[in-house]
Amino acid sequence: MPTKVMRSGLPAFGVMAALVLAAHGVSVRAEPGPVAYLDPGAAVEDRVADLLGRMSLDDKIGQMAQPERRYITLEEVTRYRIGSVLSGGGSAPTPNTPEQWADMYDGFQRAALAAPLRVPLMYGVDAVHGHNTVVGATIFPHNIGLGATRSPALVREIGAATAREMAATGMDWNFAPCVCVARDDRWGRTYESFGEVPELPSAMTSIIDGLQGEDLGGSASVLATAKHFVGDGGTEGGADRGDARIPERELREVHLPPFRAAVERGVGSVMVSYSSWNGLKMHGNRYLITDVLKGELGFTGFVVSDYDGINEIDGRPGFTKEEVVAAVNAGIDMVMVPTEWRRFIDHLRDAVKDGSVPMSRIDDANRRILTKKFELGLFERPLADRRHLGTVGGDAHRELARRAVARSQVLLKNDGVLPLDADDKIFVAGGAAHDVGVQSGGWTITWQGRPGPITPGTTILEGIRGAAGSVDYDAEGKGIDDSYDAAVAVVGEKPYAEHHGDLTGDMGLDAGDLKTIERLRAAGVPVIVVLVSGRPLDVAAELPGWDALLAAWLPGTEGAGVADVLFGDVEPTGRLPVTWMRDADQQPINRGDGKTPLFPFGYGLGYD
Ligand code: GLC
To answer: Active-site residue 506, yes or no?
Structure first.
């Protein structure tokens, strides 16, 4: 490591630091005055310029690499001057407790601070509906349900609550919100969309204000990420990571506006989509990333790739130096290279040395990344803020989540059976009735989510039991008879995430759920169907036999919010954020396309 002489005098932390720096081969001339980049009173742009001037090429390349936590040691974080690590979906410490997350974060942070220039790292995590990888955290409704609330203010509150639970564990960077515009419900990520028209995701970028705070760096402020840039919800057939074969006018009118809104709110980062636009992989699209996002929209934060996203540029497994060059020159500032980060660093160093990536691009990427680190206050407050630990899964956040669940419910049919009465004798059935994992959906504790008591919460059945005195339950409806005033069938989808949720054929309920509903109907009592799903399902044929239908979406841990609407404690006010098809052959089906749906975008009944 060549000896670097720091341009100005002793760092703010004095002689001791000089000895430490010297031990790392960084000799410090004994001059008076603080080191600018360590001076919290200096302007951020001056701090960035000063730090950049002290950084070697390896320092700068380390800031652009983002390994996954399982594939790098703390010693390597220090040695390679790594600027960020992530937890991929479900990647949690053992035991999976908030305190253990905070210890893990602090361990990585101290490793980063042990490098000569003491540049703190950022730790990225998908907290897409609460701090959802942490057992015990509050799990909020997924975005499609929040879109049904039509309340940017509520969504902002959820962002702030999520930020508090993240800050408690140290996590300072959220790969959220997804501002995609889901145009085809066969897409496995439909539930990550706030809605099928640009104005809904655009309005719900209010969550960015909640996550980041009025200004970055306040108490419980985390960096937000608008994703996935751009057109991920517009691919042919709703194929995840597919090709959006649409004219530029449609890309700009439908898919770009939520990013414009996010940039106007000061979103700190933007994540590039795996998908393609007219055959070109977004991860190599310089026109859209640099000219449109950074130029036309004026985005001054930094752009991060998706997980191994650069691997897909040439359509072949793994990544080459050419793909590294294409991605960085396209305008990607930080590359999420979970396992192959050493090879990425070598390729990028070679690319700078042979001129295929200009130093100006490296400096621009570092300027963007470092600016956010200074604005986040990481140089001054690098460790987890454990004062917020009590908020993780606390009563206040769970009450907020319950309110959000109730406001996300969309009443699609009611032949007078709703609202239920606390004195009613009720039979509850269905595979989604008593399962926190199912009602939370994907991105919950694990990447794909899974059925079962995966984290503390209230099931929809428990919510119903809290509202009525006489409630019986059997998942398959066995034991039902005509002595009951009503039967509630809570059915729908099992958890999934990303391409694992793509549908290509039937979009109806599974045979088990249909059989359960038929068993309830045969008893001759009114049947209320509560649908727990990440998207509209094909229910037109069965609907006439149901007395009521409530779209519950993926409510998360606070299932009592569904009961609040079933019993009228909260009026149903949700409105469809997506058009509800008459049958799967209508997909894609969206507002204004001339097709006749079962229920139109914006539909929803009340009780009056
Ligand atoms: C995933 C998703 C992206 C997520 C990232 C990190 O593949 O596409 O939404 O933020 O990887 O987990």
So the answer is: no
CA distance 42 to 348: 31
Its sign, for the CA torsion 388, 389, 392, 393, is negative
Which residue's CA is minimally distant from atom 3 of ligand 1? Answer: 306
H or E element that contains 508: none
Contacts of 8 (CB under 8 A, 6+ apart): 31, 33, 35, 36, 50
For the chain, list the domains and their CATH numbers.
395-586 (3.40.50.1700)
Tell me the sheet residues that pair with 458: 558
Phi, psi of 251, deg, nearest 5: -60, -45
State yes or no: pLDDT of 14 exceeds 60: no
Q: What is the DSSP letter of 287?
A: I
Amino acid present at 96: N
Ligand 1 atom with the shortest distance to the CA of 178: 9
3-state DSSP percent of the chain in helix, strand and coil, to 5: 40, 15, 45
How do residues 321-344 score in pLDDT, each as one tens digit?
999 999 999 999 999 999 999 999
Ligand 1 atom, smallest distance to 225 CA: 10
Q: Which of 184, 498, 502, 558 is the catalytic position?
A: 498
Distance (Å) from CA 473 to ligand 1 centroid? 37
Is 88 close to ligand 1, i.e. is its CB under 6 Å away? Answer: yes
Cα-flanking dihedrals φ and ψ of residue 254, to 5°?
Answer: -100, -45
* Cα atoms in the 13 Å half-sphere on the side-chain side of 102: 18
What pTM, to 2 d.p., does this model score? 0.95
Query: Alpha carbon 598 to chain centroid distance?
Result: 30
Q: How far is the CA of 447 from the centre of ligand 1 (A)?
A: 9
Of 34, 62, 36, which Cα lies nearest the Cα of 121?
62
